[in-house]
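hiii so my PI (J.) wants the whole complex modelled not just the main chain, which honestly fair. so below is everything: two entries, each one labled with what it is. i double checked the lines twice but i was tired so who knows lol
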Amino acid sequence: MLSKSLIAKFAEIAGKNVWTEQEDLMCYAYDASFGEMCVPEIVVKPETTEQVCSIVKLCCEESIPLVTRGAGTNLSGGTLPVNGGCVLLTTGLNKILEINTEDMYAVVQSGVVTSDLALAVSAKGLLYPPDPGSMKMSTIGGNVAENAGGLRALKYGVTGDYVMGTKFFDMEGNAVISGGKTVKMVTGFNLSGLMVSSEGLLGVMTEHTLKLVPQPQSSRSMLVIYDDLMKASVTVSEIIGARITPATLELMDRFTIKTVEEAAKIGLPTDADGLLLIEVDGHPAAVEDEYAKVKSICEKQGGKVHVAETPEERDRLWEARRKALSSLARLKPTLILEDATVPRSRIPEMMQCIKDITSKYSLTVGTFGHAGDGNLHPTILTDKRNTEEMLRVEKAIDEIFASALKLEGTISGEHGIGSAKAKYLESEVGAGTIRFMKKLKNGLDPKNLLNPHKMGL
Amino acid sequence: MLSKSLIAKFAEIAGKNVWTEQEDLMCYAYDASFGEMCVPEIVVKPETTEQVCSIVKLCCEESIPLVTRGAGTNLSGGTLPVNGGCVLLTTGLNKILEINTEDMYAVVQSGVVTSDLALAVSAKGLLYPPDPGSMKMSTIGGNVAENAGGLRALKYGVTGDYVMGTKFFDMEGNAVISGGKTVKMVTGFNLSGLMVSSEGLLGVMTEHTLKLVPQPQSSRSMLVIYDDLMKASVTVSEIIGARITPATLELMDRFTIKTVEEAAKIGLPTDADGLLLIEVDGHPAAVEDEYAKVKSICEKQGGKVHVAETPEERDRLWEARRKALSSLARLKPTLILEDATVPRSRIPEMMQCIKDITSKYSLTVGTFGHAGDGNLHPTILTDKRNTEEMLRVEKAIDEIFASALKLEGTISGEHGIGSAKAKYLESEVGAGTIRFMKKLKNGLDPKNLLNPHKMGL
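here's the output for the full assembly
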């Protein structure tokens, strides 16, 4: 518990945007991950960068752990205040400062909601491509801190690919500026690159300069239905192998299809074993060519191709995909969403591994995800009060991660390490990397106050 | 001077690949920048990563400054051993370890020559896009350490955009692994991002996993001649403003055109005030569309458009551009090549600034460069023994940098800071960023042995 005089200091900085009552604190004791409750001691919502700077300095002087939080949609425990301390909400810093259509960039504060930016950019005839599943709630700052992916990552890349510059405060309250408004810039260390996927451990970000791109002239969305999920996953490898890069290439297994259909009544084929959702975009002639090639590859594998003929039909298809997580979440009290990722050609092998492992441990699993990126989301439905089942869940996750690494993949494609995956990190990167990360963290935050203990640091 | 026993320890590690004679050391006392002679005490060329590790550990134990060097084509003094010590050549680590056409990546050692990789990749039907001007000599390790740009950066991005993973040794000799073979990966800090443009200050890189892309199906190159350079630069902004992204969009001023033509006899129009070299690529229909639009924009500004009709003609055009630097270098003993960069729409203003400043100080200047990126290369020809002129040169450079910053640009688009631009860095990034960089460097290399004093650190 913080002393009254300390709380008063926070109030001096942020006025009424300071919370210390238990019922308020509880709201920030969880994120979207499967994690234990971690109650902070104080929550503060600065509305100016000067306030951010003062809060950081106060936490530093008083050695208070400081956890930066956007919308809390994190899936790896990244925003859980495991050491208590202060939760700094970025949602008060929610201004889009500039959308430059000539030089195609946007400057936004960290608390801007991703879809708000996407809409504002789209209204000006441009595209901000990163579209994480949580984009209607998630903030740009959180997206950068986690290097969020999304449905369009296959062709357009992830959040980090759009970060041209970042402003942040380090743990001493120094204002750090990295990158900027030019498409090329090599002045000093690549600090905006370092802040990407830094998970709140290295500084408190306040502002981001983000690359925008022209909107595609044309696109085509299709739903492809398979009576055998493995044929869907082989299709994915064959499309990539044919040098076609769709904007989106998503997969859903039978269980997910059924669950989404029950929840959302979109008209999905509940008797299918798997489906692909594919969108190609670009120049109209290129789109027609790619569509024809993709269709032929799908049909060769036995897929039945349905093309969205209207914008409404297209929206309905993508709604189906975006509802996957929330639909699955309705079924059981605890949902564990993983994001092990493999090189794209290994998708069929990884699908088989997930199937074998989850059936070996008799678990309820829906698998969907960004198959085109090699990034699947096996989603385990369970109840954390069922300790016997939780043991099986843990074993299955261990084996899924081990399989991904064996296939030259990674334990996390887009959700990050946070507290949820900290214990697995060394198995992927080795002891030398962990030592290097510790030295890096220690050099920049010697008191270990910034989101302590995440990534095992 | 190193002791005999210390030299023997180096020889124990690297056998005959150790040099300590003055005439050998002199070969590594310069790079391609305008810098003072800096003679190392020892040069060593490891041929295995184990040897690299042992050399790093030896330097750490004995507190010997360690400068990693590829081909020495650096333009900012990045590889000058300003504190003497050991120069570690990466050229003995020159194996292309894997080219994976299915998952589209290459794994290469740091000493691989950029164009060797480009050719090997091209032979397999894929493209490694980054093509720095020095690619026939430069190494991949150097390209990553400097985040090298190139002619294709406008559409395809710079070296850093292709780094999926990097292996390196930190100053204690820890093996650090970051990133890997999947297109998405967020396991721990973005260390491969941090190593991009780290200029040898944070570790000794040995291996890189690089993204490859499909080759474009079609392309069109054109030469556009202007009787007024300003109209060429307005054309650049208009092409970008029309949402067209050519693969390449290069500019040359009258002085550079004349100099290249005198040196290379390619048939350039020596009476032109400026020219643009433009290539559009992609799907054949998109190429034809973009070509028609680009042609019309050029002609609206009074440009005369010549399209390369054969592959030979195309090669001749790009040879003209690639010869710009070497042709200018023939004219005077000292060449100072700058790379101040501005947001693309500010190119006409920046062109005017360069013209005004260099004429104010009566300097001989050829300007060419990646206009589409906002990245110009005003190249000052002088003689460093002429101290009076050198004072004017210095003032002109100060003013060029100040102009770039005023236009929301940067002092370095692609050459890095090294020793040449260290004194300008703070004017761009501010004191807080410098402090952060110092803490970062100190945490990872407390003895300041890795390429000491570069970036002012």
